[in-house]
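Lab notes, practical 5.
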Amino acid sequence: MTAAYTYDDRGLVTEVTLGNGAVIEYDYDDDQRLIRVEHFDDSAATILKLEYAYNDRDLP
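Output from the prediction step:
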């Protein structure tokens, strides 16, 4: 399966588009820690959403 990757100005992956039309989006906080991953099917319906929070030791 092929995939196309999109990166932000910091070099972090923000989107992956799979060959079947599914899309995975990634969001990061100001410290470049992953805070959200959302998977969409080929009709743009959300099929999975994960959100992360970090404690004072930078652990999720």
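Observations recorded by the TA: The mean pLDDT is 97. The longest strand covers residues 34-40.
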